[in-house]
Amino acid sequence: MKKIDHIGIAVKDIEVSNKLFESLLGVSAYKQEEVQNESVLTSFFKNDSCKIELLAAIQEDSVIAEFIEKKGEGIHHIAFEVESIPDELERLKAEGFVVLNEIPKKGADNKLVVFLHPKSTNGVLIELCQSL
């Protein structure tokens, strides 16, 4: 793994949360993007080396909507940048980590992504992301 790429935060209202993080970080979102296959609207903030992804559901049955219903707004995942998702998956599976999606899918911010099950990572959803 190269580095932490971003921290994903589930939010109910992307516009309200955009204003909050603009005030908090002192910068505006550099990108807003809808990810259809996840039914989510994202906003990205970057302040120096810190990158935050806000995630808001665009459908009531989306993973983010379910997360907020169960746990409320807050940290949804930590994403690590990797050179090669297939190589990292092979290594991590050999170490006993449970993978949620074996086949990488297109995520936000021009990345391919896979997720590790929180039950194998101390309750934290881990995303591995690779630039396209």
UniProtKB/TrEMBL annotation:
Under InterPro entries, the record lists: Glyas_Bleomycin-R_OHBP_Dase, MeMalonyl-CoA_epimerase, MMCE/EMCE_epimerase, VOC_core
VOC domain mapped to chain residues: 3-131
Q: Does the keyword Cell wall biogenesis/degradation apply?
A: no
UniProt keyword terms in alphabetical order: Metal-binding
Q: Which Pfam families does the protein's record reference? A: Glyoxalase_4
Family to which the UniProt record says this protein belongs:
Belongs to the methylmalonyl-CoA epimerase family.
Name of the protein this chain belongs to: Methylmalonyl-CoA epimerase
Source species, please? Flavobacterium pokkalii
